[in-house]
Amino acid sequence: MPDKNSFTFGNTTTEDIAGSANAIGTIALCKYEGGNAAKFLQEQFDVPAIVGPTPIGIKNTDAWLQNIKKLTGKPIPEFLVVERGKAIDSLADLAHMYFANKRVAIYGDPDLVIGLAEFCLEVELEPVLLLLGDDSQAPSKDPRLAELEKIANHAEYDIEVIWNADLWELESRVKEKGDIDLILGHSKGRYIAIDNQIPMVRVGFPTFDRAGLWKNPVIGYRGAEWLGDAIANALFADMEYKHDREWILNVW
Q1: Are strands 26-28 and 49-51 parallel, antiparallel or unpaired?
Q2: Digit-coded pLDDT (tens) for 97-112
Q3: What is the pLDDT of residues 177-191, one digit of tens each?
Q4: Is 36 helix (H, G, I), strand (E, B) or coil?
Q5: What span, in angstroms and rounded, lies between the C-alpha atoms of 111 and 182?
Q6: What is the C-alpha separation between 159 and 130, in angstroms, rounded?
Q7: Strand 103-108 vs strand 26-28: parallel, antiparallel, or unpaired?
Q8: Are 131 and 109 in contact (CB under 8 A)?
Q9: DSSP state of 56
Q10: Beta bridge partners of residue 127, listed in sequence order
Q11: How confident is the model at residue 140 (pLDDT cuts 50, 70, 90)?
Q12: 134 near 164, Cβ under 8 Å?
């Protein structure tokens, strides 16, 4: 900046945080990592709480906007209806021709992994390996189990879920399966993708080996469109490098 200030510029003040007890409501985008804060405000200050789903993909973004509409009483703006149509059109162009039956491994924060898995189902990708990178001492009683079972029930293939997973688990499971077509996760899995020659799309935190990814959120309709494009481009580049049916790209 002209005054040599190098600090980031945010708009949320400590007064705003203290004033959250007087909000008309709280919407937690991450059910498992942020839901407790929303529930606390509801229990302590009677602030209505809407917890999840994480708005990744069309269905979850629809639910998110309906929740905002219900909370505020305001209609969904027309420009978001247009964004939705553009995203669906973009994803439809890619899904059946390029995404169908591509097997995906997803790892990272549980809210993100679940959201990405649901997005994969929407676009005909197959999320066959889900690795949840947090500490659940009793997976059989974990509230996320119901969501994961719902995802599995919508799939026509087996989905393996690894609880309390780390990168060693990712590498061993990828090698064990041997037929993973795509990896979705943060940058720390890059060497696994490189060593096993599997295309990878960086999603989540951190993404230190690609410039500017933080500027492209994956939530909302635009996020769904960007995520579809990023996946397609990763698959296209892999086809070219491996000379694997790259002639398909000539008819695009």
Answers
A1: parallel
A2: 899 999 999 999 889 9
A3: 889 999 999 999 999
A4: helix
A5: 19
A6: 7
A7: unpaired
A8: no
A9: -
A10: 104
A11: low
A12: yes
Give the separation between CA 148 and CA 153, rounded to whole angstroms.
9
Reading the block at residue 5, the tokens are 């200030």
Letter for the amino acid at 70?
K
Alpha-carbon span 71 to 104, nearest angstrom = 36
- For residues 23 and 47, the answer to whether their CB atoms sit within 8 Å is yes
Q: How far apart are CA 130 and CA 113, in angstroms?
A: 7
pLDDT in tens, 79-88: 999 999 999 9
The pLDDT of residue 228 is above 80: yes
Q: Does the pTM of the predicted model rise above 0.85?
A: yes
Q: Determine the Cα–Cα distance for residues 167 and 129; give it in Å rounded to an integer.
A: 13
Region of residue 170 (left: phi > 0; alpha: psi -120 to 50; beta: else): alpha
Are the C-beta atoms of residues 127 and 159 closer than 8 Å to each other? yes
| Structure tokens, 125 | 């990708």
* Cβ atoms of 47 and 25 closer than 8 Å: yes
Q: Which of 20, 247, 32, 204 is nearest to 135 (CA)?
A: 32
CA–CA distance, 157 with 177 (Å, rounded to integer): 14
Number of residues that this document lists for the chain: 252
Structure tokens at 11: 């708009």
Check if the beta carbon of residue 118 is closer than 8 Å to that of residue 125: no
| Cross-strand partners of 132 | 108
Does residue 10 have a pLDDT over 90?
A: no
- Residue bearing tokens 């990878």: 200
Contact 88, 68 (CB under 8 A): no
